[in-house]
Specification:
Strand order of the largest sheet of chain B: 1-4-6-2
Strand order of the largest sheet of chain A: 2-1-5-3-4
CATH architecture of chain A: Roll
Largest sheet of chain A: 5 strands, mixed
Number of domains of chain A: 1
CATH superfamily of chain B: Molybdopterin biosynthesis MoaE subunit
CATH topology of chain A: Ubiquitin-like (UB roll)
Structural class of chain A: alpha+beta
Shape of chain B: globular
Structural class of chain B: alpha+beta
Number of helices of chain A: 3
Distance between the termini of chain A: 34 Å
Order of helices and strands of chain A: EHEHHEEE
Mean pLDDT of chain A: 97
Distance between the termini of chain B: 23 Å
Number of helices of chain B: 4
Low-confidence stretches of chain A: none
CATH superfamily of chain A: Beta-grasp domain
Number of domains of chain B: 1
Shape of chain A: globular
Helix content of chain A: 25-40%
Radius of gyration of chain B: 16 Å
Low-confidence stretches of chain B: 1-5
Oligomer: heterodimer
Number of strands of chain B: 8
Radius of gyration of chain A: 12 Å
Mean pLDDT of chain B: 94
Largest sheet of chain B: 4 strands, mixed
Chain lengths: 84, 161
């Protein structure tokens, strides 16, 4: 099981701030996880439609979409940050 | 050098930058140079006040846990690059009104160059790495603020070759 978190515009599109998921072993990378999550609902599909604009973090560390999710406990998806 | 937790603060209530600066100065009486950046909420969208749409409110969302971790990592990185006596980053979350302080960055060193460069580095990297998102309310409703390429360019100046 892993916790998937959504923030800002991604959260609004998906309609959830977090969900517990149990993806199959074939989901090896963040990119794989996006493909798998996008198939969960039309809202997920829309949220991940322009995936180039979505940033990701694994266990609270920024990662590229090619990163492994094999041992991930928490994966987060969000737009580019705009704080400060 | 490890970072004391008190060097990073994220809070949902307003803070007083003057009081924060005074406290910081009191903690760091032997530093020769202190550099401070204060970011506060604008009441307009776009490049300037004359042409921008009025902004009446802002909400700041953040990723609890990762935001504190990223700010701590920025401070550790700054301490590795410059000789600093003290560093502080305070960032708001939640609902803000125009002119409310959003962020306070302070760096203290024996000499001005380390303090000034570290302060600039901290805010430049904060803007592209710390997981915060602004949503602005204008006459046409509330909308997420888009990230700008200019921020990426500024942050990249600090990348190590």
């Amino acid at each position: 099981m892993m916790t998937v978190l959504y923030f800002a515009s991604v959260k609004e599109k998906v309609g959830l701030s977090e969900e517990q998921v149990d993806p199959p072993a074939s989901v090896a990378t963040v990119n794989d996880l996006i493909d798998w999550l996008a198939a969960r609902s039309p809202r997920h599909a829309e949220a991940f439609a322009s995936r180039g604009m979505i940033k990701s973090a694994v266990d609270q560390t920024h990662v590229p979409a090619s990163a492994s999710v094999a041992d991930a406990r928490e994966v987060a998806f969000f737009p580019p940050v705009t704080g400060g | 050098m490890t970072t004391a937790p008190s060097n990073v603060r994220i809070q949902s209530t307003p803070f007083d930058p003057g009081a924060e600066l005074n406290a910081f100065l009191k903690e760091t009486p032997h530093a020769g140079g202190i550099a401070v950046f204060i970011g506060q909420m604008r009441d307009f969208k776009g490049p300037d006040r004359a042409t921008g749409a009025p902004v009446s409110a802002m909400a700041l969302e953040h990723y609890p846990g990762m935001a504190e971790k990223e700010l701590g990592a920025l401070i550790d990185e700054a301490r590795g690059r410059w000789k600093l006596d003290n560093v502080r980053v305070i960032h708001r979350s939640g609902d803000l009104a125009p002119s409310d302080p959003i962020v306070f960055v302070a760096a203290a060193s024996a000499h001005r160059v380390d303090a000034l460069e570290a302060c600039t580095f901290l805010i430049d990297w904060l803007k592209t790495k710390a997981p915060f998102w602004k949503k602005e309310t204008t006459g046409t409703g509330a909308a997420w603020v888009d990230a700008t390429g200019a921020d990426d360019v500024r942050a990249a100046r600090w990348d190590k070759a």
